Amino acid sequence: MDFATLIGLVGAILLIASAVILGVSPEVFINPASLLIVVGGSLLVVLAKFSFGQFLGAFKVAARAFKFKLPDTDQSIDEIIEIAQIARKDGVLGLENREVSSPFLGQGIQMLVDGQTADTVKELLSKERLMTLDHNRSGAKVFTALGDVAPAMGMIGTLVGLVQMLSNMEDPKSIGPAMAVALLTTLYGAMIATMLAGPIADKLTLRMTEEARMQSLYTDALVAIQEGKNPRIIEQLLTSYLPPDKRDRNAGGEETTG
């Protein structure tokens, strides 16, 4: 579970809810017509921008913003070096039925066992990485679109409410409540964009970048293993995927050991 996403979204909602409860009656902030315009209208406009598959798939992908865990880079490099040592000692057939932490890595190892060339392994895994990127990018685009559309639908709802209010000016006492209802659609649109759609879109983009980076690491490692490179050379190759501080520390440790 990604507690940063959970705490951020739930915390923001609780803060707004607290401000509402501590102010006037909470019922003032609930208006079915405004919700219908903003929520229903926004979802339909976003649907018009994408296919049914992309639209529905985005809400499945959204779960990755809350629950998604990639293997640690350090641990992945250690795992790959162990795999490289086995392949160097026993050949790639020694990797058959080897349990690994990532399905992508397992798919690549199976290619090695099947005798695919390094170029073929690189090509197939690169295509798989691009497909994963496209799938995640599509989900992020849907929520980005929702974040763009919701405030606009809120403004449309506000204009509709203002037109209805101005067309019925006989009773001055009704102007205040009518104005409040009109402004609720702007509030709903801003909340959906700022507190829901925007954060989820940004977190999915982050997940996409992290997963693509890890898959690139696996691809480079598997190609190097298939080419028969020394595990030490593979380790040096993969340290480029570490943050600069860890990379420098590892390099310093190697020099000290030497």
| Count of runs of 4 or more consecutive helical residues | 9
Radius of gyration, in Å, reads 26 Å
Secondary structural class: mainly alpha
Number of strands: 0
Largest sheet: none
Low-pLDDT segments: 252-258
Mean pLDDT: 84
Short description:
With 258 residues, this protein is an all-alpha fold. The protein is built from nine helices and no strands.
What would you say this structure looks like, in words?
With 258 residues, the chain is mainly α. Helices cover 78% and strands 0% of the residues. It contains nine helices and no strands. Helix 6 (118-166) packs antiparallel against helix 7. The protein is elongated, with a radius of gyration of 26 Å. The model is unreliable at 252-258 (pLDDT under 50).
Q: Can you tag this structure with a few keywords?
A:
elongated; mainly alpha; 258 residues
Task: Give a topology summary.
Layout: H1 3-22, H2 32-49, H3 52-61, H4 73-90, H5 103-113, H6 118-166, H7 175-226, H8 231-238, H9 244-257
Helix pairs in contact: 1-7, 2-6, 2-7, 3-6, 4-7, 4-8, 5-6, 5-7, 6-7, 7-8
